[in-house]
Structure formats: structure tokens, C-alpha cells
Amino acid sequence: MPIKIPDKLPARNVLESENVFVMDESRACQQDIRPLKIVVFNLMPLKITTEAQIMRVLSNTPLQVEVDLLMTSTHAPKSTPKEHLLNFYKTFEEVKGDKYDGMIVTGAPVEHLEFDEVTYWEELKEIMEWSRRNVTSTLHICWGAQAGLYYHYGVPKYQLSEKLFGVFEHRVIDKKEPLMRGFDDVFYAPHSRFTGVRAKDIDKIQGIKILAESDEAGVHIVASPDKRLIFVTGHAEYDPFTLREEYFRDLEKGDNISIPKNYFPNDDTANDPIVRWRSHASLMFTNWLNYYVYQETPYKLDEIN
Fold first, then answer.
1. pLDDT attached to residue 8
2. What's the pLDDT tens digit per position in 292-302?
3. What architecture is domain 3-239+278-303?
């Protein structure tokens, strides 16, 4: 089944070129089926790029998925055309009266700040609190995962000695969890961050569980007892060349940045990167949509509580 997105969203052309099944709104309305309603709170600066990444991993499912895009109202994005934001994005004021089957909170390049120093922190807190009663399951990514763990459970983030940057090996901790069904014992995921959370802090909190971790990258996937809150510290949704683009961007800025680990063959940037995470990325998002959203959400959205 396809993912349903606005007819003129730029991600549509990208996905169709990759043979991803995309359905326009007019065709979707003719199908007698209730799609899953997913809201994506996109905090990344390059919103159009992130849209395509998220839509891609949401598309590989037998379920019809309808996506709303959410942006901050307390912080004006600078790297995305205003016309695009006006055409495709909503603010919290516009959606807070709605209910959603699922929600995704993306990462954001604000790790150098304490949470309460982020300009839209109060707005994010309000949205995360709202999600408890109005969303069946929320998936938090990278900084979004750190923010969610801090807000919901008081888990602190820590500055790393250097940027965690590359593609790292992870192991499944709990094979019985539905989110991890079909995963290999060892799988790979990209990371790109300056801060992290620690297992010892999470282990102190009754109920929440670490589902996957890495010797190099640390805690990777965490779930609340009722699976309404999922936290993923990496970027499973990344495109094959995202880390390369970030690396050359940082070089041009004059940052002291190392070559992303386990990414370029022989650490030679002239080589195309080795892609070894996308099958598990697709599996993770499909499992989330199926087991934690579709299997749990009521048919009538207004019954979510």
C-alpha cells in the first residue's frame, strides 16, 4: 500500500523516481479505508530533505499512511522557503484539537544547548505533553529522542568527547519486542551527534527498556512500557549520501571533523559509501507502524486517550 502525501510536495518526485508507491490525495479519497494519520514534527533545518527521508521509510508497509507536517511557531525556520512552509506545514495551534495514530519528532542541530536554552523548548514540551493523550505512539529521533527522554523521564544528555559520526554496529537486547521482530542479531545504523544518553540513567527508571545498543554508539532504541513512546538515538532514516554531505559541509565551515566511521570504503571520500542500514531502517519503521500504531490505535481517532 502507498503513502499518501500532498500532490505537489517535492518529496513526491524523489520517491516516485525510486519506484516508491505514492498516492495522491484525490486517488486516496476513492479508497474505502481509513489511513493511519501520522504527524511529523520536523525540527531539521533542511526540511525538504528530511521530508523525503521520513516519507521513504513510512512507505514500505501494507497500510495506507496519511502524513501531516508540523513546524514550530516560536522559531522561524531559515533554511526552507517560506512558500514551502505555508503550503505544506501546520503549527501546533492548527492541530492540537486533532488526534493522530502516530507521531514522529525529528532530530535538530541544537545539541550544544541545554534543553531550556532551545528557543522552542516550551513549545516542544507542550507538544510532547499533548502527545500523551492525543497520539497512539510517538517515535523520537536523535536529539528528539534525547529531548523526549529528558522531558518524560528526566534522563540527562551528556556532551561527547568528539562527534559520534558514522555507521555503527548494534545488537538487539530484547528479541521478543515486536519493534525488533525480523532484526538480525547485529545490525547497523548511522549516527551524527555531539551528545548522548547513558544506559545507567535509563536502567534506574522502572518500566522503560533498552531494546538495542552499541559498544561504540551506546544506547540506540528505548521504549516505554506501553510502547506509546519510542526513542531512537540514531538516524535510521538517513539517505546513502547524507553523512557525506554533512562531512563536506562541516569541512567547508572549518570544523574539526573526522571522516565518518565505517562509511567510505578504505576511508577514501572518493569512494561511494557502503550502505548497510536501510533494510533494518525500513523494518524498524514498518514494525512501529504495524505493532505500536496500527495494532493499538482505535478505529475512531477521537477514542485515543
1. 75
2. 999 898 888 88
3. 3-Layer(aba) Sandwich (3.40)
78 is in an annotated binding site: no
Dist CA 45 CA 293 (whole Å): 27
Count the neighbouring beta carbons within 10 Å of the beta carbon of residue 245: 13
79 assigned ligand-binding residue: no
296 is catalytic: no
Where exactly are the structural domains of the chain?
3-239+278-303
Catalytic, 237? Answer yes
Choosing from 66, 111, 177, 237, which is the catalytic residue? 237
**Residue 29 annotated in active site:** no
Closest to 233 (Cα-Cα) out of 204, 267, 201, 258: 201
CA atoms of 155 and 157, how far apart (whole Å): 7
Distance separating alpha carbons of residues 136 and 293, to the nearest angstrom: 6
**Is the distance from CB of 163 to CB of 251 less than 8 angstroms?**
no
Q: Which residue in 152, 220, 235, 280 is the catalytic one?
A: 235
Q: Which long-range contacts (CB under 8 A, 24 or more apart) does 268-271 make?
A: 269/244
* Residue 163 assigned to a binding site: yes
pLDDT at 228 over 50: yes
With contact defined as beta carbons under 8 Å apart, do 118 and 151 qualify?
Answer: no
Q: 13 pLDDT band (50/70/90 cuts)? A: confident
Catalytic residue selected from 142, 170, 191, 246: 142
| CA nearest to 285, candidates 59, 22, 4, 27 | 59
Eight-class DSSP state of 291: I
